[in-house]
Design brief:
By secondary structure, the chain is mainly alpha-helical. 79% of the residues lie in helices and 0% in strands. It has 7 helices and no strands.
């Protein structure tokens, strides 16, 4: 097996973790996902000159740009974790736990933080570990097989498994978004129904 498949395993795990985290955020109707919270924390930490320069270049798209950058950095780290898994089972865990810890600090230090905000972080971190473990276990088993035919079958199995995880991740993300949107609509409707109604004065005469 080439090193590229180990990197691919890490990338697939990264996408799955981000999708599950997003779905959990939407399903729980939380204000922002861990990804957005990390991006906002980065905004607070960067020097003002840099932040102003980014705003000048991207205008109102500065926040989406920063979220994209943070997403790419996180996927790069999960890809690196996949490469580490080729020779070690515990080094990828350190990468994932460190990423989860950073995200947890980001969500819990917000002014409106609540304990429930930790759920998407934990869900995403566990997903990273489980998906990468499944894919890398498959790669380790395949590496022990000999012969061109066996290698070809192993490669197909890995590609199928990676494709299934990727599609499932997209499905979970879409479902979470739609489910969360419905819950937000219901909560908004309930708040509107509970608005105090001022009694009109009775007509005179």
């Amino acid at each position: 097996m080439t090193r590229g498949v180990w990197s691919a395993a890490g990338a697939v795990a990264g996408v799955a973790g981000l999708a599950v985290s997003h779905a959990a955020t939407m399903a729980l109707t939380l204000r922002s996902s861990p990804l957005v919270s990390v991006a906002e924390s980065v905004t607070d930490l960067v020097p003002g000159v840099v932040a102003e320069r980014v705003i000048e270049v991207f205008g109102s798209n500065d926040k989406p740009f920063l979220i994209l950058v943070v997403s790419l950095v996180m996927l790069a780290l999960t890809t690196y974790a996949g490469r580490l898994a080729e020779r070690s089972w515990w080094k990828p865990l350190i990468v994932f736990v460190a990423m989860g810890a950073i995200a947890l600090v980001a969500v819990l230090t917000r002014f409106d933080a609540q304990g429930l905000d930790a759920v998407p972080v934990l869900a995403g971190t566990v997903t990273w570990i489980v998906v990468l473990s499944f894919l890398t276990d498959m790669l380790h088993r395949n590496a022990s097989e000999q012969g061109t035919h066996a290698e070809g079958r192993s490669r197909r199995q890995f590609l199928i498994a990676s494709g299934v995880f990727t599609l499932a991740s997209l499905g979970v993300g879409v479902f979470g978004s739609k489910f969360g949107a419905k819950r937000r609509h219901v909560d908004k409707s309930r708040r509107l129904l509970n608005l105090p109604v001022k009694a009109r004065p009775a007509p005179t005469g």
